[in-house]
Amino acid sequence: MSIDSIISAAAAEALKALYGVEVEAASITPQATRKEFEGNLTIVVFPYLKASRKAPEATAQELGEYMQAHCEAVKAFNVIKGFLNITIEPKFWLNVLAHINETPDYGFRAATPESELVMIEYSSPNTNKPLHLGHVRNNLLGYSLSRIMEANGYKVVKTNIVNDRGIHICKSMLAWQKWGNGATPESTGKKGDHLIGDFYVAFDQHYKAELKELEAKGMTKEEAEAASPLMQEAREMLRRWEAGDEEVRSLWRTMNSWVYAGFDETYKRLGVDFDKIYYESETYLEGKEKVLEGLEKGIMYRKEDNSVWADLTADGLDHKLLLRSDGTSVYMTQDIGTAKLRYQDYPIDRMIYVVGNEQNYHFQVLSLLLDKLGFKWGKDLVHFSYGMVELPEGKMKSREGTVVDADDLMDEMVGTAKETSAQLGKLDGCTQEEADKISTIIGLGALKYFILKVDPRKNMTFNPKESIDFNGNTGPFIQYTYARIRSVMRRAEADSIPTTFAADKVVPNEKEVALIQRLADFPSVVEEAGKTYSPALAANYAYDLVKEYNQFYHDYQILREADNDVRAFRLTLSATVADTIRRAMWLLGIDVPERM
Fold first, then answer.
1. Residue 393 pLDDT class (50, 70, 90 cuts)
2. E strands of 364-413, at which residues?
3. Which of 463-469's residues contact partners 24+ apart within 8 Å by CB, and which partners?
4. Predicted local confidence at residue 110, as pLDDT
5. What is the CB neighbour count within 10 angstroms for residue 396?
6. In the chain, N or C: fewer CB atoms in 10 Å?
């Protein structure tokens, strides 16, 4: 039984004995005592004042006295207004440590046949450009969330919807036809997604030059945009694609295959994957069919110009276009089609969309429409809305080619990690292969941690230099502490130092108690991260645990401790901390190196 459970049960017993009130022990949730007060756990007594009919201080005092007299785990207590601060008998923390070590995958729950199936959509790239820094945040959040939900006992399916059709795709295709000279990834030595991205930028450059020429002839900006031959060609290509023109479709398949090969390389390096990939080109017609079905049932309506709409005014929203007058689909239609296919493929209980906060309204509408169309999870779909990520220099623009490319960013992070690690002597004695591997783990860990430690709902500025620091709230700081503990454990093993100890001969000191208590918090952190969809909770827990351990490591001997039982206890405690760091970082998709 955990220490929280022991104290909850003791408090429930006290409430019944003192005031005759039956309270479920599980409803009493002790909190860690604030650092400025004495104690380990705090119970808030305000909910029980009606039963006690006494002032908060008097109620807390009576509860504390009863618990101290009847519960061996309670060493002392103090009262601050309506807060009962309890100090746990130090030896009880050894039971907590033993419980953690005896529990496989402590803090994680395994899925059962009855577990809910959660589908998580993330990435959602366009096939006209490579993945950039914004995609990196999206992928890291989505992948981390999938692990957090898995650790909370859910069945998880990771999906991706690739936006592989539309005018933006045609712009890249047209630019390749006009100025590509038959270029391929093989002939240029470029990753396919980078090559296609170059043509997307090229289209925009030529288009802008064309507009400038037309405006110089006296046209307004709007007139120039309408008259642009280049844009007219792109629209004609899209019309031919929609009509199934084989020449256009063949080029589209070839260029998309180059992009997918490039995406796969980036995903693999970033350490994310998917169980199922959907393509907009395969879902938009399904969506159209579902909308027409809704039209027949009176859920949607048709305007005089033949366009199809949904009236959502009764739900506090407006009228939403679902099919244009020419019968073509909009993004909402595609999302409905994708939902239909997913629901056919999987028995979804909960659907989570990892999409930036600029799409908040879109998902409000989608939720209502899916519910009206009969999808049982539609009303409760989760839009995991996250903030934008920028660089210290400001926003990025794909059309202008000023985005931070995901591959370039990873190259830079690994290179900086290698350089910084070498300067600090952390790669001394490593072979070239080991140095490369460690630099990759540190560089990508720094990138992932810096992005995931921020509350996902907030906009953030990514600073590569700040992220690779072996001090402070960074990935490398946490990774280095893990490697340091593993080094201690290897030395203990090499010298045949035992890690078993006589519990009756060890009394944990204040710092050791604080560490065990921090370890005991891990399951509640995992649970809360799942409830609030926040990888940041797991990230900052890892940092707090590491900070606590480093203070202990600085103040106390481990291998040189003279008392055999105390030394063995500290080794056990250290190994448990390392294991918990590893699991907390696993939730973030971050590897930890055995050596640094």
1. low
2. 382-386, 389-390
3. 463/391, 463/392, 464/409, 464/412, 464/413, 464/416, 465/416, 467/413, 468/413, 468/416, 468/417, 468/420, 468/442, 468/443
4. 96
5. 18
6. N
DSSP run (H or E) holding 441? helix 432-452
160 touches 123 (CB < 8 A): yes
When computed from its CA atoms, the radius of gyration of the chain, rounded to whole angstroms, is 29
Angle between helical axes of 510-520 and 3-19 (0-180°, round to 10): 90
Q: Band of the pLDDT at 232, cuts 50, 70, 90?
A: very high
What does the CA dihedral 588, 591, 594, 596 come to, rounded to 10 degrees? Answer: -100
- State both tokens at 151: 């650790």
Per DSSP, 119 falls in state E
Q: What is the pLDDT of residues 295-333, one digit of tens each?
A: 999 999 999 999 999 999 999 999 999 998 888 788 899
CB atoms within 10 A of CB 98: 13
Domains defined for the chain, CATH in brackets: 3-89 (3.30.1360.70), 165-273 (no CATH), 406-587 (1.10.730.10)
Q: Which residues of 203-233 are buried (b: 16+ CB within 10 A; e: fewer)?
A: bbebbeebbeebeeeebeeeebeeebebbee
**Beta-sheet pairing, 389-390 with 460-461:** parallel
Q: How far is CA 110 from CA 151, 534, 578, in A?
A: 7, 20, 21
Tens-place pLDDT, residues 17-74: 999 999 999 999 999 899 899 999 999 999 999 999 999 999 999 999 999 999 999 9
Q: Give pLDDT tens digits for 118-161.
A: 999 999 999 999 999 999 999 999 999 999 999 999 999 999 99
Please check whether residue 89 is in contact with residue 72, taking contact to mean a CB–CB distance below 8 angstroms.
Answer: yes
Quote the CA–CA distance of 117 and 495 in Å, as a whole number: 48
**Strand order through the sheet with 308-311:** 301-302, 308-311, 319-323
What DSSP string runs through 219-243? --HHHHHHH-HHHHHHHHHHHHHHT
How many CB atoms neighbour CB 113 within 10 A?
Answer: 5
Nearest CA among 48, 93, 91, 90 for reference residue 66: 48
Mention every residue, 6+ apart, whose C-beta is less than 8 A from residue 40: 32, 33, 86, 87, 88, 513, 517
What is the spatial order of strands in the sheet that 31-32 belongs to? 31-32, 41-44, 83-88, 74-80
Per-residue pLDDT tens digits for 494-505: 999 999 999 999
Q: Half-sphere exposure of 111 toward its Cβ, with a 13 Å CA cutoff?
A: 14
Q: Which residues contact 280 (CB under 8 A, 6 or more apart)?
A: 161, 162, 163, 164, 165, 166, 334, 338
Helix (H, G, I), strand (E, B) or coil at 499: coil
Report helix, strand or coil for 345: helix
Say which amino acid occupies 171.
K
Read off the pTM: 0.91
Residues across the chain: 596
- Closest by CA to 489, choosing from 563, 580, 576, 564, is 576
Q: How far apart are CA 4 and CA 32, in angstroms?
A: 10
In the block, residue with structure tokens 């997913």? 342
